[in-house]
Amino acid sequence: MPTWYAKINFSNLNITNLIFAGAVAIIAYLVIGPTIFLLLSSFRSALPTPADPGYFTFGNYVFAYTSPETYQLFLNTALFVIASTSIAVLVAFSFAWLIERTDIPAKGTLVMLILLPAAVPSMLMAMAYIILGGPEAGLLNLLFYELFGIKPINIFSLPWLFILNGLNSVPTTFLILLGALRSMDPALEEAASVSGASRMGTVRRVTFPMMLPAILAASIYTGMSAAETFELPALIGVPIGFHVFSSQVYLAIRVWGNHTLASTYSIIFLVMLLALVYLYQRATSQMYRYTTISGKGYRPKLMAIGLWKCPAFALIVLVFVATAGLPFLIFVASSFFPEWRTLGLKALSQPNLDSFREAFGNVVFRDSLKNTAIITVATPLVTVGLMSVASWLIVRSNLGPKAKTALDALTFWPHAYPGIVLGVALLWFFIMVDFPPVWGTLWPIILGLAINYMPFTVRTLNAAFIQVHKELEQAAYISGASWLSAFRKILLPLVMPALASAGLWVAIHAMRSLTVPMFLSTHGNEVLAVLVWTYWESDMVETVSVIGLFYLVTCAALTLVWRRIGFSGSVNR
Amino acid sequence: MKKKIMVIAAILVDAILAGLAISMPAYAATHEANQQALIEAAKKEGVVNIIAGWPPKETKAIFGAFGRAYPPIKVRQTMMSGREGLERLRAEFASGRRGTDLISSSFYDLEIAGMLQPWKDWFEIFPDTKKRAVHPSLSGALEPPAVKGLMYRTDLVPRDLQPLTYAKLSDPRLSGGKIAFNIRQYEHYAHLYPKWSDEEIIRYAREVLVPQKPKICNGGAACWEMLVRGETWAIPALQSHQYFSRYLPKGIVNIAMGSDVAPVDEGKPMLFLKDAPNPNAAKVFLYWLATEEVQAIYLQLRGRADPYDANNIIGEWMQKHGAKLFNHPDSEREARSRELGAMVLRMFGLPVPKK
To answer: What separation in angstroms does the CA of A377 have from each of A381, A394, B197?
Structure first.
């Protein structure tokens, strides 16, 4: 065994140390740099222009903290988070319980139906529902009007906003809760059942209390995601005057043209989310106290739900239809029947491909498509590449505990960053630092997305590295292999499924990300998500539908591949 | 002596005539040479990057025609509103990495930010530029001492309408009520109507608008959402056909708003940016936009010299839905606009404020 394995000598200048140092330096630079510039910019009067270089001021903070609107933002954000998280957790827990603890049929298919909506970007979901339930010209309203003379749905309302965001979060929340349910020893439920407790009594008095920490952790995670969500509040909330922090940051830049105030709102928002991250870490660190899985044979007895199978099955299918099926159908209808807004249902008799011609005939669309493809490939490569090294250092190196904790915290820090705040921070960073001089290319977007997906990637890889025993590497070292070749030839092949899974997850999210590229787009580096947003704002609904269709099909295909190669929560029993 | 004077005078006249005869072609040759040099330089640049809101159907026609006129030069549009474009430009200027040559945005914001650049020798290079083209969109643009941009407009807002727009907002019926005020119109009108100084506008906002606690709106879709929800009863209209067709696809009869909020398109300046990366291509494109050919294309695509002319899209929409515009004298206009505002509310089934 080479001595460096037992104790890496970081003072040596060799290729291994260069890789370590380079990766850590890049991660630190990309994570800390934008944060510093975000903070500094919040104390500036304006983004410099030829006529106004700007000056140092506390004015933005004074404005923000003396404005009643800011306190309304806190309330609105809290309301949005609580309401949509409650819906997500309720639905997800019900689904996880049905899948894991009952004899509901076709579990594999049902899990697929629950997870597939993860492929639907929330931006497209909101747009689809506006097309469907717009107060006057929504397709569903038109149908009701033709049949009954009424227009009953108004998507521009708070209940719809909460429901849509809640349903959009179900797949992720479901995955978290499913894992927790699987690791819970069903013997306790069986004991309750033997002691005469009813089915629902067992769920209420045993399952639910045992799951409470996991539910709490899932709730905080989902709540953080809800707080970070921008698209749904911007598309449905803002038109009815319901502003949350994420939409306020957007409005500060795009509508008021005030970059520095946007930075101030971002900092306030960031501090709020850091509190949630702290809570989340506390909640997950306490979860071991409730671990009930043991070394004994683990085979949960499934609860027979009898006639309830049908409504339970129908409920899962209904949520799938609402979150994935309908958006798909709406985009199909709007793409192939572009006259629907002026002709109503009569448009169904006039299908045409005009929207497709308009989209694909547009050079900006073609360029955006190419850029999106590059980003979809490059972002996972950069993210997984950097995080592989970071994860190895955290899990397998002989770094001191403090250094490991620092590196772990560094890679987890972006978890507190909402995409829109990260976009603002990176805008300032790349404009003012100009190192690397990549502004105007695709690199700011790729690096921004890499930062955004660091926490997920490093956690996935940590889990994978832990599972590979050190003996395998040690055997390689004894045989004279260098760290690089042992990493490349032994470790990487063994963790390849995890790498591929993490990479695909990053690719899917990078492809549809709007908030990070939104502020980093310039001439020539536009991506499809930004183009969709621009076209929507320009009322080009039919072209949006064409791009939306493309997105849904591609994301769904990638999600299926991702699930096939990497999803760990298999329920094929 | 007299004969001598006559001979001298004749020689002088001949000399002047000869000088003129020589200098005219020379002048022509100079501007043609300058023109050619500019076009050649533009072709070498090969691209002009603009920020504007032309939808793909329009870019296809307009950029396609430009491509045919100046084959090697490509026009690349980033589709954005003026406000978003300004935000993009701030980033460009701050980074020093410039990409945009021209932008369709507010004169006011860009001038204040010091982002504009005058093109001083436009008329020396292109003396054939018509200040009044087939379409009225040019009239606001070609102002001395130097052209900073081309104001292309699909219609003109008569000057006398501007005070009425403000007057309407001071209508006591709106006190305490929810109204939307299109803040962009301030800047726009302030530029178009210099008789309203900044001080006057600020005074007006402070004394008339602020006490009413209006919802400040930047214009565009958000204002229309508010209109549809009944939070306002009238706002300056912009591309109303799009938004009304979105919400009321069956069409509106007598939509028309008031004269002071008649659906005339606002001015659209195409502004020449300081230190544009492709300045020559940008100038050629600006000049070309002012030609009759482009004005005719633009009129056909979007313009509306006559809203009752079904040959353009707005006229076609007006005719299809039986919509009418109003063109009453001032004395009737305000009353009419109130009546129409109430009509809009009734059409949406919303309560009409009492007088």
So the answer is: 7, 26, 54
